[in-house]
Amino acid sequence: MHEALDLCAECADRGRGVIALRAIAQGEPLLRIPRDCALTARAKASTVRVEEKLPDTAAFRALSPYIRSAVALLRERLRGDASEWAPVLASFPETFDLARSWSESELAELEGTSTSELMRLGGSAAGKGGAVEIVWRADIAPLLALPEHREEWPGADLASFRWACDCTTSRGFDDEFTGEGGYGSNFRVISSSFWFEGPYLLPAVDMLNHDPVSPCTTLTVDDEGSFTMTAERAIAKGEEVCHRYQDLPDTRLLMTYGFTLGELGGDTNEIPAAPRITLDALIEECEKLASSEGAFPWDNAMEGWERKLALVRSLLPGDNPAMAVTAADPLPSTLRTAALILLAPPIALPEFEGARAANAGRVPLLDSFALGDPDVAHPFVHAIHQCVDAKLALFPSGVREDAMRLDAGETDDPRGRRRMAVLMRFEEQQVLWLTKKKAVTLVAAELAAARAEEEEEEEEEEPPLKRVKAAAEE
Question: Which domains occur in the chain, in start order?
Fold first, then answer.
């Protein structure tokens, strides 16, 4: 560890953090964590002793890396002072201020947001057990109750497993191969022969707070599996030493770490709000249009509907697929493509299916050219607006009311949770209104471009016609 680091400093408005006791030059090593000091359940990256004590069954190996790493951490805690990790574990908090620990009334303030949706999908609402309890009862508890493991796991219960899961979620580090939801990595692999995935619990490194705008550290891992944190830039004396966790929007920050960018006082537009529009919601609105009389000029708009569903589900595979919209991209190409396929005339299906076959079984993204056809453009705007309106209806209050509450300080509370929730609602609703606006402006632009092209074609035909008319008049 660098001699000029105070790992347990009190930082203004941030609680505990890491402070530079003197100026540190760019490139200076700050921390180095040998491979044997990085706790994880990855077979190639953890100590042999930890791996030997974990359940060696196909069912356990099939669990997610986070769950297996949480079990590894639980094992170390149960060993007490005999664990090499005992001093580190003693520094971990007993409770974590994550969204799933909020009260029912606090969670109600998140209603309508992507955080609320994701928690509902995971069954994480307060007082309802949640995904952690489901995994414990279905997968972990039966394994630890086996005769060969019972004596090795004294005191293991749901509460201790939940604590281990919270530790792993909020303090674990992933590599670039498994960056959360495509949001990037919180360390960089410089190894050419060693495979890393994580999550890893790294003593001392996890003491650094998050700074998405001006971080001053870089974390790398080498061929030996050792993690090294270096100064990415010059660090002034007395400056807090921060790391950029991942490029996560507020929804993920709140669920994973228990804070948002707005709470940090940073620019919330740096990583904007990202409300989600589910594929099922889009399918429902497009199906309503296709089954309604007179919505399209072609006969039997529901023809080939199952084929259309197969196409859009190849575009967004997985359970409960959804498309995130942001201020920078309020109408993403996946949302536009899915809507265009669902609203296309049946005669276009062979072309889409051929494109999917030529693209490794996934339908390629479409441009907005088809929106120049009024028969497609008007249903497209209607479907997008209906999806957004259904999403907006889930929020307990509108943008104007939330803005007034924020300005009046009505959301202030000792923990800042209500203000955080209302701010998240406010930002997500603003983005959704931008999605509605973008659908209209995009269609207007494509219709205008199509009209201009038609007028240009007419002008090319006009001179000969004029000559014919002139000759007839003579």
Answer: 30-231+244-258 (3.90.1410.10), 276-459 (3.90.1420.10)
